[in-house]
Each structure stands twice: as C-alpha cells, then as structure tokens.
Specification:
The protein is built from eight helices and twelve strands. It has 250 residues and is an alpha/beta fold. The chain is elongated.
Length: 250
C-alpha cells in the first residue's frame, strides 16, 4: 500500500482525510506537528506528503523549504485555508507539487494524492544557496556569515537566517509575521517582538560596519526590507522606531 504522511493539526479534518485516503488504498500516517513530520520525512519512506501550512512546531512553508533543501523529493500536496494567489504561488515555488484550498471535496483530495503518487519521487539536488550581494553587503550561506566591505559581521546562526531571508527578498518589505514564520517557524502573537529585537541586533552588526550605507529599513506598521541606501538618504516613511519593550530573544 502506498504510504502517505498526513501533517494536519485539526483532528476532525485529519480524521476525515485519513479515512477517505485509507478507503482508497493508502496507508496513512498522521502527525500533528510540522517538526515531527519533517523528522519522519527524513528517515522514513513515503510516496506522498499531504501538508497543512499552519501546523505547530515547524510550519508548512518551512517544512517544504527544509525537505527540498535537503534533497528529499517526496511529492507534497498542500491543503490549506490560505488560498490567495500569493500563497499558492509561494508554496509551489518552494517545491510543493499541488495545492488544495479548504474546504475541498474528499474525492478531489484522493484524486490529487493518486496523481502525485503516480508521478513518484522527484530527483532534487540539495540546495546550497547562492551568495547574495546588496551593495557592499555580501550574504554568504556557504559560510553562514555576512560581510560588509570584506569584514565579517560575526552573526549568530539565527541572525544570519533572518538576514538571508531579507536578502532573498531584497527591495521588498517583508512582514513581521512572514519573517517569524520563515525563520522561527511560528505565527506572530500580539506582543511578540522577536523580529524587532533581532533586526536591532542586525543593524548594530551590519549597518554599524558601514559609514556610507544603511541596509536594514523599517516600514512602520508593516515589516522590514533589505536595501542599500546612502547614509542620510533614508525615506522618512521608513525607519520609524519600533517598540522593543516586550521581546522573545529566542
């Protein structure tokens, strides 16, 4: 029987999906957390993974990115209430094979999983990551480090992950919620200032090493962007001070 890993934290939905997939001849393994699903994909053989994006532990975005980055080619069928064009395109660009928007027909789910199983496991080269250059800032994933004018910024691994996500989206404002999901694998709560604290640290280590450029910019009420701007030429709409009174330093 083809094995399917079902990563879904809603017990009612998961039970319904597992029942219909089981009736269609699949051996379904259910887990509720993304980090558990990631471990099982690493060490067990599955023909298909059915994945909800908003699961605890490691969210679906991060799970797709991790498995594809590690060269795991199991077909991934995303099932999510998040059905905007951006969500669908982003999931597919990260490496998902299909996307179903909740609510959906169980017959359609079974058909999509069968189609994914027929296509089989793809060959995926482990992602090594390319150097990103933003002005005199060099973000080097091979060394898990950033350099300004050739001098190391001495970033911690978490600081580097945050900077690398911003570098991959250079010039675009990335929301705090998206950064929290992609770097820490969790959604933002009302008083969660983790991102703000780490951006402040990056400013000290990255912007602080350049006399001529600033790189990290705040779009007040939205998020952050990475862009090389001459010192003193920052747009007044950017770089409004953030409230750092309550932060999770993890």
């Amino acid at each position: 029987m083809p094995r399917v890993l079902l990563v879904e934290d809603d017990e009612v939905i998961a039970e319904g999906m597992a029942r219909h997939l089981g009736s269609a001849g699949f051996d379904v393994v259910r887990v509720e957390r993304g980090d558990v699903g990631l471990k099982r994909l690493r060490f067990e053989g599955f023909e298909v993974c059915v994945l909800d994006l908003m699961v605890p532990g490691v969210d679906g975005w991060r799970l797709i990115e991790e498995v594809r980055g590690e060269g795991i080619g199991v077909p991934i069928v995303v099932v999510s209430a998040r059905g905007t064009e951006h969500d669908r395109v982003h999931a597919l660009e990260l490496g998902a094979d299909d996307f179903l928007v909740k609510p959906f027909s169980m017959k359609e789910l079974v058909a999509r999983v069968r189609a994914a199983a027929r296509r089989g496991v793809r060959v995926v080269e482990p992602a090594r990551g390319e150097v990103v250059r933003v002005g005199e800032l060099v973000v080097d994933p091979a060394n898990v480090q950033a350099f300004v004018g050739g001098v190391s910024c001495e970033l911690t691994p978490t600081e580097f992950r945050l900077l690398y996500v911003l570098a991959l989206e250079a010039g675009r404002v990335v929301s705090r919620d998206e950064l929290l999901q992609r770097v820490w694998g969790r959604r933002m709560s009302t008083r969660d200032r983790t991102v703000d604290v780490f951006v402040r640290k990056l400013r000290e280590k990255v912007d602080g090493r350049s006399e001529d450029w600033t790189f990290l910019h705040t779009r007040y009420g939205v998020g952050y962007k990475l862009e090389a701007v001459r010192a003193g030429e920052v747009d007044a709409a950017d770089d409004s001070p953030a409230d750092l009174s309550s932060a999770d330093p993890s």
